[in-house]
Amino acid sequence: MSKEFVSFMRRRVSAATLDIPAPNKAEWRTILDAASRAADHGNLKPWRFRVYQGEARAQIGEIYWQHAKAEVPELPEDKKAGFVKKAYRAPAILMVYANVVEHPKVPRDEQIMATAAAAQQALLGLDAYGFGGIWRTGPACFTEQTKQLLGLAPNEEVVGLIYCGTPTQDLVYVGDTGIDDRLTFVDE
Ligand SMILES: Cc1cc2nc3c(=O)[nH]c(=O)nc-3n(C[C@H](O)[C@H](O)[C@H](O)COP(=O)(O)O)c2cc1C
User: Fold this and answer.
1) Which of 3, 8, 106, 188 qualifies as a cystine partner to 42, CB 3.0-4.6 A?
2) Confidence check: pLDDT of 1 > 80
3) 117 lines ligand 1 (CB under 6 A)
4) Where does the Nitroreductase domain start and stop, copy by copy (predicted)?
5) Can you tell me the distance from the alpha carbon of 18 to that of 76, in angstroms, rounded to the nearest whole number?
6) 179 C-alpha vs ligand 1 centroid, how far in Å?
7) What is the CA radius of gyration of the chain?
8) Whole-angstrom Cα distance, residue 18 to residue 5?
């Protein structure tokens, strides 16, 4: 296994400002097929992917707006555009969600974790193809109202909205990850 791959992982950073191009459908297939090799207890493949692009991004904008209105019912309608616009911060949004099933050995949390692992693999795949992404969620992603708006089943949970495209700014390498403070070897 090439050590260059480890260096590639080490250089990974999120890209907050993104523009076209985003992956085309063939590139998405390749990237998400690779993401589907995430660690997966019970081979359940709990992850699901949905790519929103073009005007379909308004469907994501709608969840931001409806969540804001649920929080602050008196929000005037003329504020809607500002919320919907948030979904247009990148040319594509990859929604990664989990289809959670009852399983005697694989609890719900592990299925969500496997889905998060697939999301991280997707981020690496985007980078490898010369694109960039940033994983964004927030309270709007985790409500029943949002699940209904997005047409998710009761057993499905949003894990991440990954904004994707081509970085428009130079990405800044992270010099210190703080590993020395976070790593313990237990030898005996
Ligand atoms: C589960 C999860 C949710 C996140 N949600 C947001 C978010 O809503 N908004 C945001 O700006 N960053 C969010 N982030 C952080 C960014 O994706 C990113 O990791 C952060 O900006 C640090 O950049 P880096 O990945 O280059 O270190 C989230 C990360 C994770 C793992």
Assistant:
1) 106
2) no
3) no
4) 21-165
5) 29
6) 19
7) 18
8) 24
Of 86, 134, 162, 179, which is best to mutate to test ligand 1, by the most ligand atoms within 8 angstroms of its C-beta? 134
Q: What is the pLDDT of residue 103?
A: 98
From the annotation, which residues make up the binding site for FMN?
12-14, 37, 41, 135-137
Structure tokens at 114: 């496997």
Architecture of domain 14-51+90-169: 3-Layer(aba) Sandwich (3.40)
User: What is the number of alpha carbons within 13 Å of residue 29 lying toward its C-beta?
Assistant: 3
Per-residue model confidence (pLDDT) at position 188: 85
98, 48 Cβ separation under 8 angstroms: yes
Among all chains, which residue has been given the structure tokens 């804001």?
68
Q: 31-45 b/e with 16+ CB inside 10 Å = b?
A: bbebbeebebeeebe
Domain boundaries, the chain: 14-51+90-169
- Decide: pTM greater than 0.70: yes
For residue range 146-158, list pLDDT tens digits in order: 999 999 999 999 9
Task: Write out pLDDT tens, residues 77-129.
Answer: 999 999 999 999 999 999 999 999 999 999 999 999 999 999 999 999 999 99
Whole-angstrom distance, CA of residue 133 vs CA of residue 141: 18
